[in-house]
């Protein structure tokens, strides 16, 4: 059965359908933890037996997996297996990006404890988390990328809410020049190995646009036209490439949308996300 046609579970049904394991350590740092929501019915779904891996936002600096569960609730209501991931904060984009690969490889190495379908992984996130997921997805078939995924892991799709896909120098500039002190702190911490603005050759290494090719997984991108943190101009080139194949990719541009989708915008987005996944 297609996911879009699966009736949403009640909170009681969700609780009954899942085995939940919280704060599983996938690395040696205390921030490297994940929550696993194993669905009893997911293995019966065949080609729709996805493992959704979600990463929270917060500028690689703030927040926590427990604070953005609104993004995983729609999957739980459908009985989809979900992994909700924390990653190392305040140590820059490079380290945060490594953590997703490390977490996936950990799950692959511990299949007995966590029997998840890693051949149909959907990487999703909001803001910083969506950027990390997008980068790992587009580098999965690039032999030059220094952090390879373990054999048997396949990225089936990406669902990106407001996550940078290009123009990281533009994003860095927004934060570095922001009037709010915490935003400036985030800007300074994006690339801690550099002083001041990171050189373009550094920022490009962490832009999904740099690695994109037509063989990459399908993308669903939610983008707000009034995003003041990841400006719309940073999406232009990447989105143009995605739109070369409308059958494969979906771009949901919300002209009045801000950086963070409202509850209604999120609800409307998932009405398109499940049909997007059903085409895969």
From TrEMBL:
Keywords on this record? Answer: Hydrolase
Against Pfam families, the record matches this protein to:
BD-FAE (PF20434)
Q: Which GO terms describe its molecular function?
A: hydrolase activity
Tell me which InterPro entries the record gives. AB_hydrolase_fold, BD-FAE-like_dom, GDXG_lipolytic_enzyme
Task: State the source organism's domain of life.
Answer: Bacteria
| UniProt key word Hydrolase | yes
Ranges for domain BD-FAE-like come to: 35-238
Q: Does the keyword Hydrolase apply?
A: yes
Write the protein's name: BD-FAE-like domain-containing protein
């Amino acid at each position: 059965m297609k996911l879009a046609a699966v009736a949403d579970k009640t909170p009681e049904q969700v609780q009954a359908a899942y085995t939940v394991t919280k704060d599983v350590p996938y690395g040696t740092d205390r921030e490297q933890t994940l929550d696993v929501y194993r669905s009893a019915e997911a293995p019966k779904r065949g080609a729709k037996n996805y493992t959704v891996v979600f990463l929270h936002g917060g500028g690689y600096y703030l927040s926590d997996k427990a604070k953005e569960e609104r993004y995983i609730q729609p999957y739980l209501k459908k009985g989809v297996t979900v992994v909700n991931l924390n990653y190392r904060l305040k140590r820059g984009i490079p380290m945060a990006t490594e953590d997703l690969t490390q977490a996936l490889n950990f799950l692959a190495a511990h299949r007995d404890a966590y029997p998840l379908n890693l051949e149909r992984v959907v990487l999703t996130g909001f803001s910083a988390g969506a950027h990390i997921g997008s980068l790992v997805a587009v580098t999965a078939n690039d032999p030059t990328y220094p952090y390879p995924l373990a054999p048997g892991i396949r990225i089936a799709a990406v669902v990106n809410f407001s996550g940078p896909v290009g123009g990281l120098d533009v994003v860095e500039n927004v934060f570095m020049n922001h009037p709010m002190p915490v935003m400036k702190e985030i800007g300074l911490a994006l690339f801690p190995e550099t002083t001041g603005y990171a050189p373009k050759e550094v920022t490009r290494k962490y832009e999904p646009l740099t690695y994109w090719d037509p063989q990459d997984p399908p993308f669903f991108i939610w983008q707000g036209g009034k995003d003041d943190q990841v400006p719309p101009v940073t999406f232009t080139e990447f989105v143009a490439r995605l739109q070369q194949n409308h059958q494969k990719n979906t771009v949901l541009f919300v002209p009045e949308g801000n950086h963070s989708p409202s509850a209604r915008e999120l609800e409307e987005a998932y009405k398109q996300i499940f049909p997007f996944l059903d085409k895969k």
